[in-house]
Specification:
Number of strands of chain B: 11
Domain Rab-GAP TBC (chain B): 358-568
Largest sheet of chain B: 9 strands, antiparallel
Helix content of chain A: 25-40%
Protein name (chain B): Rab-GAP TBC domain-containing protein
Bound molecules: guanosine-5'-triphosphate, magnesium ion
Oligomer: heterodimer
Largest interface: A-B, 33 and 57 residues
Number of helices of chain B: 24
Largest sheet of chain A: 6 strands, mixed
Number of domains of chain A: 1
InterPro entries (chain B): Rab-GAP-TBC_dom, Rab-GAP_TBC_sf, SGSM1/2_RBD
Distance between the termini of chain B: 57 Å
Pfam families (chain B): PH_RBD (PF12068), RabGAP-TBC (PF00566)
Distance between the termini of chain A: 35 Å
Radius of gyration of chain B: 31 Å
Strand order of the largest sheet of chain A: 2-3-1-4-5-6
Strand content of chain A: 15-25%
Keywords (chain B): GTPase activation
Structural class of chain B: alpha+beta
Shape of chain A: globular
Radius of gyration of chain A: 17 Å
Order of helices and strands of chain A: EHEEHEHHEHEH
């Protein structure tokens, strides 16, 4: 079986987890990024889903494994288990709903709890097409972003296809720099920081 | 040498270390709990296991307790098969409990080092577990204590990760094995730590999970196991055939050296740690050789290489049937099952037929109301009309409650506001490709919204959780009106609401139960999931939360749900459906290239591609397999598939 439908070689594989409140548009963002389409009535995400997308940064072939998690509060215990070994996190909120912005704090706390310390974070304010309904100012968002030392704060619209690809490329670039500068040159087709072996799994016996 | 006479220093002590026994001619088996110690005297270090003062019988034990006997070579005839009738002797209950005095008096069954040389001539390996030594015949206290010098351990095979508790298989220098030690209360890690202080341990290259022990004192190697008088002395055959019918006896008979009797634990038995999963019990009856083969423990004779034991780990289930699926129940069938006043007759049979083939689409609207407990089967048409009037009133009363909250009020009513906002988000995302819900200003969306918000008022403690809209959508479409849809939905939520609990305990329990089943039914697959870091089964989360709603077409999910709603053959039939689905996908999921992410991806991608009838038939087949070997199931498995309830019910009926 070939889950990714593309076996093209790549230089780096990064795992990116997409988090944020229910309905902020995470699945739409992933869909837009992955296939360039806009599906208005995407079903809510139950558990997690993921997709792969390749891109090129600085002449390197990068494969991004994007994990789309459920935003519903109650499913957090499940989704948190997928944070492990993420190289990057995209935390999204809905520019038209202040509560989703206020919850960025909760999500960032989860990140510090469940992700590796050096994970790269990106803050996204989605639905920027709805300018009339905007509920938070860009300054506020940027401030919160820098408070959590995100690599960038970007406003996006999955609907209008604004900054979607740019956001992922931005994160990929940062990850690439980080990992090539730390001199952890990976063999092609080596999963970067992925899978179960990055952290010692607690053994249940002996 | 009397142990008490030399200074003994205990360096490790662990309670709750169990040995598991098979009991011949009985459906239950025994475990003997005890204390494992490592102690040393001036010269040597020893490993000792000493039973507590009684035998733990897993509940429910209706039979008379029987005590395991492990033979000495004295009892064992060469290659002679034991008479099967000999296995059926019972030990009377008075033997069950030892007297406290004996229990309190530690009986150090120690190796007399100086006595060794004389006895070491006996070729036929003398491993005896002294069931009833002379004095214990009186006290009825079986003494199973064994003590061995650490140097005599050659290697230790560890349990794999992920079993309910760790267990260790100790193989001695001369190729014999000790009874498997099950660390029910943990402590195996510490055991290693301590052990490493006294011997050198190296990972075996020949065998997985095995640690080879190199003694610090090479001389010790000359000791042979038979000199250790492992299980006390052998005044034992005095009872004649009575205690010798044990299959282990014959096991020793056939494989005179290896006594690795019991084995690997596959079952989580999380809730009942004292119950050994009985599926692993040797099916001991007639033929000792067979018993060995079928008990999933394979003994290899010496000469085949000393690392020769192997634990076979697959559930012993009968062949899987593939029950035929049936036709949906028809309108004629349904009418013929109504009496003149509209009561439904032969409800159990109807449920069986629905389980077998579902419901004709033209009948669903009515039948679902019964299946979901909105209508009661025994109600007359008149009573139903009245019920509907009341329920309608009830619904609109609750609807009015939230409808009359003004937007201003709502600004100070956060819980309601938040629920409404979540519902709003989901209503626009639920089944929008279906004609019924399609389009922007579709009235169905409003109905979906209103039923969900009203449900919040009905069950405010739970509120709205994502996934509920998926469960409501097919019901609403079928019913076509909010009142009936609401009350059917209430019935459905009554069944599944714990899946939506704030603490997620319901989902956790379901995942745990599913794990129990997989682990029991297909240990190899389960091991594979462990290896792939997927044993939490989170990839089944959506199946369970939405009762497969996203995995099947609209038509099929209706059939699937009505089948599940019959409650047949057990409340957890949906878990068996999960097992069936995984069983179908197993070849792909177990592929070495299919890792953690691929499993998730593959399972998510099954949506819309599943053969419903085949899956239902397989799930039922698995249930029947379990039901057939019912008495061999661990309590945990039995609980999950509702067989304990049945047994109880049967017993109650009999009484
Ligand atoms: N106007 C506008 N609407 C958007 C945009 N992105 C998403 N939406 C809408 O927001 C709603 C939720 O989008 P999803 O992508 O399903 O949200 P999610 O974050 O994945 O939600 P969960 O899966 O529940 O965690 C959908 O109804 C989309 O139509 C956007 O950029 N602009
Ligand atoms: Mg989503």
């Amino acid at each position: 079986m070939n889950p990714n439908n593309d076996t093209e070689p790549y230089d780096y594989l990064f795992k990116i987890v997409l988090i944020g409140d229910a309905g902020v548009g995470k699945t739409c963002i992933v869909q837009r990024f992955k296939s360039g389409v806009w599906v208005e009535s995407q079903a809510s995400t139950i558990g997690v889903d993921f997709c792969m997308k390749s891109c090129e940064v600085n002449g390197k072939k990068i494969k991004l494994q994007v994990w789309d998690t459920a935003g519903q509060e109650r499913f957090r215990t499940i989704t948190q288990s997928y944070y492990r070994s993420a190289n990057g996190v995209v935390c999204a909120f809905d520019l038209t709903r202040q509560s989703t912005f206020l919850n960025v704090e909760k999500w960032m706390n989860d990140v510090s709890k469940f992700c590796e310390e050096n994970v790269s974070k990106l803050l996204i304010g989605n639905k920027c097409d709805l300018t009339e309904e905007r509920a938070v100012s860009r300054e506020e968002c940027a401030k919160v972003g820098s408070y959590y030392s995100v690599v960038d704060y970007i406003e996006t619209s999955a609907k209008d296809n604004t900054n979607i690809e740019a956001s992922f490329i931005k994160l990929a670039t940062v990850l690439l720099e980080k990992h090539s500068s730390s001199n952890l040159q990976q063999e092609p087709n080596t999963v970067f920081g992925l899978g179960s072996r990055t952290k010692p799994v607690k053994s249940t016996c002996c | 040498m009397d142990q008490k006479s030399s200074a003994k220093m205990v360096v490790y002590e662990q309670e709750g270390v169990f040995i598991h026994f098979c009991i011949p001619g009985s459906d239950d088996d025994k475990m003997l709990g005890g204390i494992l110690t490592i102690f040393k005297d001036d010269e040597h270090s020893y490993l000792q296991w000493k039973p507590y003062d009684n035998i733990v019988t897993p509940p429910p034990a209706e039979h008379e307790a029987q005590v395991l006997s492990v033979s000495s070579s004295a009892v064992v005839g060469e290659d002679k098969q034991l008479d099967s009738s000999a296995f059926n002797h019972e030990i009377t209950s008075e033997m069950r409990l030892p007297t406290p005095e004996v229990a309190l008096d530690p009986d150090w069954t120690m190796v007399a080092k100086d006595a060794k040389k004389e006895s070491s001539t006996d070729e036929s390996f003398d491993l005896s577990m002294d069931v009833l030594s002379a004095e214990s015949q009186e006290s009825n206290s079986p003494q199973y204590t064994f003590t061995i010098p650490l140097e005599d351990i050659r290697c230790i095979k560890k349990s794999k990760k992920g079993v309910a508790w760790a267990y260790l298989l100790l193989e001695l220098a001369d190729g014999a094995s000790l009874p498997t030690l099950h660390f029910h209360q943990g402590g195996s890690k510490k055991f290693w730590k301590v052990l490493e202080r006294y011997v050198t341990t190296t990972k075996s290259l020949r065998q997985e999970n095995t640690i080879e022990i190199t003694p610090l004192n090479q001389n010790a190697l000359t000791q042979s196991f038979d000199q250790l008088n492992l299980f006390g002395d052998s005044s034992f055959p005095t009872l004649g055939g009575k205690f010798l019918e044990n299959p282990l006896t014959s096991t020793f008979n056939h494989f005179s050296k290896v006594t690795n009797f019991l084995q690997d634990f596959l079952n989580p038995a999380e809730t009942t740690p004292l119950t050994r999963p009985t599926n692993e019990r040797a099916s001991l009856i007639d033929d000792a050789t067979e018993a060995v083969g079928s008990s999933r423990i394979q003994f290899k004779q010496e000469g085949e290489g000393s690392a020769g034991f192997e634990v076979i780990t697959c559930a012993e289930l009968g062949p899987r049937l593939h029950p035929q699926r049936g036709k949906p129940i028809s309108p004629e069938y349904w009418t013929s099952h109504k009496d003149s006043e509209g009561r439904i007759t032969e409800v159990e049979q109807i449920k069986k037929d629905i389980f077998r083939g579902g419901v004709d689409p033209s009948l669903r609207k009515e039948v679902w109301k019964y299946l979901l407990g909105y209508y009661k089967w025994e109600m007359t048409s008149c009573e139903i009309s009245e019920l509907r009037r009341n329920k309608e009133e009830d619904y609109y009363r609750m609807k009015l409650q939230w409808k009359s909250v003004t937007p201003d009020q709502e600004t100070r009513f956060t819980p309601l506001r938040e629920n409404k906002s979540l519902i709003d988000k989901d209503v626009t995302r639920t089944d929008r490709t279906r004609t019924f819900y399609e389009g922007k200003e579709n009235v169905s969306l409003k109905l979906l919204n209103d039923v969900l918000v009203t449900y919040c008022m009905y069950n405010f403690d739970l509120g709205y959780v994502q996934g509920m809209s998926d469960l409501l959508s097919p019901i609403l479409e079928l019913m076509g009106n909010e009142v009936d849809a609401f009350w059917c939905f209430v019935g459905y939520m009554d069944i599944v609401q714990h899946n939506f609990d704030v603490n997620q305990n319901g989902m956790k329990a379901q995942l745990r139960d599913l794990r129990t089943l997989i682990q029991f039914l297909d240990p190899t697959f389960f091991d594979n999931l462990i290896e792939k870091d997927s044993k939490n089964l989170y990839f089944c989360f959506r199946w369970l939360l939405l009762r497969f709603k996203r995995e099947f077409s609209f038509e099929n999910i209706q059939t699937l749900w009505e089948v599940i709603w019959t409650g047949l053959p057990c409340d957890n039939f949906h878990l068996l459906i999960c097992v069936a689905l995984l069983d179908t996908e197993k070849p792909i999921l177990m592929d070495k290239d299919c890792g953690f992410t691929d499993i998730l991806k593959h399972v998510n991608g099954l949506s819309g591609k599943i053969d419903l009838q085949l899956t239902l038939s397989k799930a039922e087949g698995i249930y029947l397999q379990l039901a057939t070997c019912q008495r061999d199931l661990s309590d945990t498995v039995r609980d999950v598939v509702g067989l304990s309830k049945q047994t109880k019910r049967k017993q109650e009926n009999e009484n």
